[in-house]
């Protein structure tokens, strides 16, 4: 079971890595602005590399009963799990600061909305999917140089069409958010979504708590089982080492010179079982 979990994590890591590499290759074709807020391809690549390397260490350690690699896998996975839990708890405790942090960074992304293809695609998807507009509210689009009320052109004081309340029976009007920021909230909500996207996403998660719980369980449970089974496996290997050394002591008790047992002399880089060659 231990090896099965490690193999599954390894496959997941390789899959995420492949998606990240593909996304980065496609992104490089457009040569968009390298934003610091969101780089999905880079994040997927890093996550995939970490998962693949850690899982590979675990599989190799369990196949070879290598105590050193087992401990590396166990502690690395434990630290990752602890960081995830700590981050989640801190985000809940300091939820107001977390919301402010998210809104601040989304507004930074809004400034480069038309230059950063990564952010634009994500923001358009979120605004359409969650029926929202901007970070905290629709007036956040004032931060964009094209949508600012002081800007020239038809986009001035308007919002992107993905903020609009769509009618599926007619063609999409890309200027449906025209001059929306000149209107008050009550008037604007007649044709655009005025709620901010951070609030909309959080409300969606609260309304769909079973999906959120399932996603968290799917992320944390394999890691928890990996740590637990690693502890049991390390304990088993240590017991095997002690039994091996005890048996060797009994068998060689009467000899004047005793061959050195592998685990007692060469550290954790060799595998169980074994005995040093007299040559």
TrEMBL record:
Record-given protein name: Tetraspanin
Regions that span the bilayer: 37-60, 72-94, 211-234
Major location (coarse): membrane
SUPFAM superfamilies linked: Tetraspanin
Lineage: Eukaryota, Metazoa, Chordata, Craniata, Vertebrata
Subcellular location: Membrane
Organism (species): Ranitomeya imitator
InterPro entries referenced in this protein's UniProt entry, alphabetically: Tetraspanin/Peripherin (IPR018499), Tetraspanin_animals (IPR000301), Tetraspanin_EC2_sf (IPR008952)
Keywords: Glycoprotein, Membrane, Transmembrane, Transmembrane helix
Pfam family, one: Tetraspanin
């Amino acid at each position: 079971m231990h090896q099965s979990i490690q193999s599954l994590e390894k496959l997941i890591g390789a899959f995420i890595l492949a998606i990240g590499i593909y996304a980065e290759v496609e992104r490089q074709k457009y040569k968009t602005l390298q934003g610091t807020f969101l780089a999905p391809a880079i994040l997927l690549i890093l996550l995939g590399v970490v998962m693949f390397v850690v899982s590979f260490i675990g599989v190799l350690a369990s196949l070879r009963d290598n105590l050193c690699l087992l401990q590396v896998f166990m502690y690395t996975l434990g630290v990752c799990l602890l960081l995830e839990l700590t981050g989640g708890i801190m985000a809940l405790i300091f939820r107001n600061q977390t919301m402010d942090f998210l809104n601040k960074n989304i507004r930074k992304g809004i400034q480069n909305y038309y230059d950063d293809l990564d952010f634009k695609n994500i923001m358009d998807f979120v605004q359409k999917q969650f029926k929202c507009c901007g970070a905290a509210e629709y007036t956040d689009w004032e931060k964009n140089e094209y949508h600012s009320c002081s800007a020239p052109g038809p986009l001035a004081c308007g919002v992107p069409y993905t903020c609009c309340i769509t009618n599926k029976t007619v063609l999409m009007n890309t200027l449906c958010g025209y001059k929306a920021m000149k209107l008050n909230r009550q008037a604007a909500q007649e044709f655009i979504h005025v709620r901010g996207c951070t609030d909309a996403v959080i409300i969606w998660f609260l309304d769909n708590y079973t999906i959120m719980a399932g996603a968290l369980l799917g992320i944390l449970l394999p890691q928890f089982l990996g740590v637990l089974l690693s502890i049991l496996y390390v304990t088993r290997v240590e017991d095997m080492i002690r039994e091996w050394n005890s048996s060797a002591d009994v068998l060689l008790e009467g000899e004047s010179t005793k061959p050195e047992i592998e685990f007692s002399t060469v550290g954790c880089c060799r595998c169980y079982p074994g005995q040093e060659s007299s040559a």
